[in-house]
Amino acid sequence: MTQTISINLGGLLFHIDDEAYEILKSYLQAIERQFNDEKEKKDIILDIEARLSELFAERINRQKDLIRVDDVNAVISIMGEPHDFIEDAEEGPKATGSNYRSSKTSKRMYRDPDNRMLGGVCSGLGAYFRTDPWIFRALFIVFAIFFLSGFIIYLILWVAIPEAITSAQKLEMRGEPITVENIKNTVKNEFENVKRKMNL
Questions:
Q1: pTM of the predicted model, to two decimals?
Q2: Confidence at 24, pLDDT banded by 50, 70, 90
Q3: Confidence band (pLDDT; 50, 70, 90) for 97?
Q4: Are 188 and 180 in contact (CB under 8 A)?
Q5: CA 192 – CA 185 distance, rounded (Å)
Q6: Can you give the pLDDT at residue 123?
Q7: What are the residues whose beta carbons fall under 8 Å from the beta carbon of 1, sequence distance 6 or more?
């Protein structure tokens, strides 16, 4: 008989069978050990847990409300194993073993809070389309001056497009794979940017 356990992951409640729970628990402990020396460890772990909960939520529906071993293994294969991104001083991240996969990248429109001038709409569009946000800023200014619609369109987009808050959302905005390694790099870059701004 399979036992089920209720867990809170990334603010969401999940029911998971005991074997899958042990695999997930070992995975999270391995990730914590991997980031023991990082100053940003807490933020990295929170963002990883938030992404794991998103992936588990995608796998659950009305017919299936229990997370099983195959679900945990599928999510781990997307996120990457801790040994997949052990950093070597000269070689950089190493891909070791068959679990290191090219994660399917999905792209989504978000407002970019890190490079915003006003609401982050133009910087979000720039990140999504991989262009300079000043192109979109210039377009909105031209539409605002000549057609009086630029400001209204900007406000509509400001309300309609969600802000990229988590590291996973910022990666998704740029169309990068949402893996443990990329989440770690994003959190570290954010900390460096904050430190740089504070030193100015």
A1: 0.66
A2: very high
A3: very low
A4: no
A5: 10
A6: 92
A7: none
Closest CA to 120 of 111, 133, 110, 131: 111
CA 169 – CA 156 distance, rounded (Å): 21
CB-count exposure of residue 37 (10 Å: 0-12, 13-18, 19+): exposed
| CB 180 within 8 Å of CB 35 | no
Neighbours of 177 (CB within 10 A): 17
Tokens 């988590």 sit on residue:
166
Helix ranges, the chain (H): 18-34, 41-59, 69-79, 121-129, 133-142, 150-160, 167-174, 180-199
Query: pLDDT tens across 64-86, in order?
Result: 788 889 999 998 888 887 765 55
The span from the CA of 117 to the CA of 139, in Å, is: 15
Strand pairing class (12-17; 66-67): parallel
> Would you kindly state where each structural domain of the chain is located, as residue ranges?
4-102, 121-160
